[in-house]
Amino acid sequence: MANRNPTRPPAADSPDRATGRAAVYPAPQRPFEIREYPLRPVKPDEALARVRMATICRSDLHSYHGLRPNPCPGILGHEIVGTIAQLGDEVGCDLRGERLRVGDRVTWTMFFHPDHSYVSEILDLPQKSPGLRKYGHDRVEDEPHFLGGFAEYCYLLPGTGILRLPDALTDEEAAPLNCGVATMIAVTEAAGIGLGDTVVIQGLGLLGLYGCAIAKSRGARRVVGIDAVPSRLARATAFGADIVLNAAVLSPEALVAAVKVECAPVGADAGIEVCGVPEAVPLGLRMLRPGGRYIIGGLVNPGSTFHLDGNEILRGLLALRGVHNYHPRHLVQALDFVVANRDRFPFGELVDARFALDEIDEAFARAADHSALRAAVVPWATRQPSA
Ligand SMILES: [Zn+2]
C-alpha cells in the first residue's frame, strides 16, 4: 500500500505555505518571540505534523526559568497533539502497527534516537539510548527548525514512535499522554503495583493525579495522596485517591504515622515520589511495609540530594528505583489507559486554560503561578480573551 506523500507543505491548509510561525524561547526569563522559519519537504523517513495543541509541562517551566540547561534560542514544548501534514515514504505504521496517513491525528514519543544500540536493543531501554534527543530541546536556528510544540509545525524525525489517536479522545485528554501519562505508566509499572496493594503518592500535581488514577486502575486497594496545596488535595479524590494528607499541616512524623494507619497493618506496599522535593524520599521510605518498593519519579533536576541511612533500606528489605523517560510501549499503554478510564476520571479537566501562540507569555505566567494546572498552547487559534 502506497502512502500519499505530498511534496509541498501542507496541503490541508495552504498549499503554497512555505514557512511556519514559532514561539521562540530566546533565553531564560525573557519574553517569547514569534518568528517565522522556512518549511521544507519531509525526507523519506520523516513526517511533518501540524500542531493542534501543546501543553506546558513542568520541565518547560524549568527551562524557561533557567533551572535546567536548554539550547537557546529554541522552541520548547514536548506534550504535543498534531495532524500529519506530510509523510515520508518510509514512514509506514504507528507504534500499534496501524498504517499512517496524511490527515491522521497523532501524538508521538517525546524523544527519538538515531540508531540501534546495546542499550536500546539488548537492555531494552530505548529511553536511555546513546544519542537520544528530545522534542523541545534543539536550537531553532538549525534545520529543520521545527522540533518543539510551541509552533505551527513539528517535524517527526527518525526514531520517533508515532501513535494514532482515536476520534473520541479530545486534544485536552491527549496532549499529556506522551509525557505525564506515559511517565506514570512507567513509574507505576516499576513500583509493581498490583491487586490489593496500598500505595502512597507524594506530590499531587499532574503526575501525582495520573499516578492515583493508574494505581487504582492497576488494582490498588488503597491510595494515599500527600501534598501541601489544598486545591490539589481536593482534586486528588476525583482521580482515585482514597485519602489525602496535607503536608503543610501534618509534621513528618504525623505523616508517617497516618500512612501506617491508612495502609494497615504495617505500611504501604509501594511509595512514589513525584513532588520534586528531595527530602520526601527518606520520609516516603519510612512509610513502606517491610519489603516495600519505592520509585523516584520527580527529582528531575541535578543536585537533588538527600540523607539516607542505608541500614534502614537493608533492615526494611526495601527496593529503591528511579524512573526517567519511558519505553515506547508505555505510550501505547497510556493511550489505552486514558481511553478505558475517561468516564471514570475527569482527565479533560486537567488542561484548564488555552492560549493562542502569541499569548504564550501569559500561558507560561499562568502555569508558573499555578493558576492553570496544565496550560495549553493552540498555535492555530486566533488570539482571544482568556478565561
Ligand atoms: Zn514533560
What does this 3D model show about the protein?
Helices cover 24% and strands 23% of the residues. It is globular, with a radius of gyration of 21 Å. Strands 3, 4, 5, 8, 9, 16 and 17 form a seven-stranded mixed beta sheet that branches. Strands 12-11-10-13-14-15 form a six-stranded parallel beta sheet, with helices on both faces. Strands 1-2 form a two-stranded antiparallel sheet. With 387 residues, the chain is α/β, with parallel strands linked by helices. It has two domains: 187 residues, Quinone Oxidoreductase, Chain A, domain 1 (Alpha-Beta Complex); 140 residues, NAD(P)-binding Rossmann-like Domain (Rossmann fold). The N terminus is likely disordered. Zinc ion binds next to loops.
Task: Describe, in short, the structure shown.
Helices cover 24% and strands 23% of the residues.
Helices and strands, with pairings:
Elements (H helix, E strand, L loop, with lengths): L18 E6 L8 E6 L8 E9 L2 H7 L14 E9 L17 E4 L2 E2 L5 H5 L10 E2 L18 E4 L5 E3 L6 H4 L5 H11 L7 E5 L3 H12 L4 E6 L2 H7 L6 E4 L5 H11 L5 E6 L6 H6 L2 E9 L13 H7 L2 E4 L5 H14 L9 E6 L3 H9 L5 E5 L9
Parallel strand pairs: 10-11, 10-13, 11-12, 13-14, 14-15, 16-17
Antiparallel strand pairs: 1-2, 3-4, 3-8, 3-17, 4-5, 5-9, 6-7
Helix pairs in contact: 4-5, 4-10
Bound molecules: zinc ion (ZN).
